[in-house]
Amino acid sequence: xxPERPTYAVDIAGIKRKLPLFEIKPGLKIAIxxxxxxxxxxxxxxxxxxxxxxxxxxxxxxxxxxxxIPLAHVLSVVTHKPYxxxxxxxxxxxxxxxxxxxxxxxxxxxxxxxxxxxxxEMMKGKRVIILDDxxxxxxxxxxxxxxxxxxxxQVVAEAAIxxxxxxxxxxDIISLGHLPVxxx
Length: 184
Hints:
Blueprint: E1 7-12, E2 15-25, E3 28-31, H1 39-53, E4 60-64, H2 69-79, E5 83-86, E6 98-103, E7 110-115, H3 117-123, E8 127-135, H4 139-151, E9 154-164, E10 174-179, E11 181-183
């Protein structure tokens, strides 16, 4: 039996959760928010974010796979706005996809984001909100921005359940809360 993992307690949109702490590099731990399968939390967060973005004029929600997909889906249902997913692996059926490379904090490895050919034409001239579960370093945001620029879309807002790390970096992000990083 493994020892009890330390956690960080949060209250997100009225829902309480204990987020497990994981060391991502020596001396640095982060609280991991995994919304996959947490229907109660996803719905509460989507409803709360919908209220925060209701005054913004936008056409499409954009997110990167994978953990934020359920959030994008429920927020799409609540706001009656379509959403698209930027994929992290290219498949032949994606055709003439647009791409941009970023560095993932979770894996520490470069990752490429792809906009499927079928979504490429739809994005021209659209006003978009970029959506993520947690914004930590901003590298995924940067990749999403680059793909949207290549597609001819305008990013009008960026939103997440949580920002993380240096709070002053994220003053322009629409979020439901902020997570600290934990150092030894």
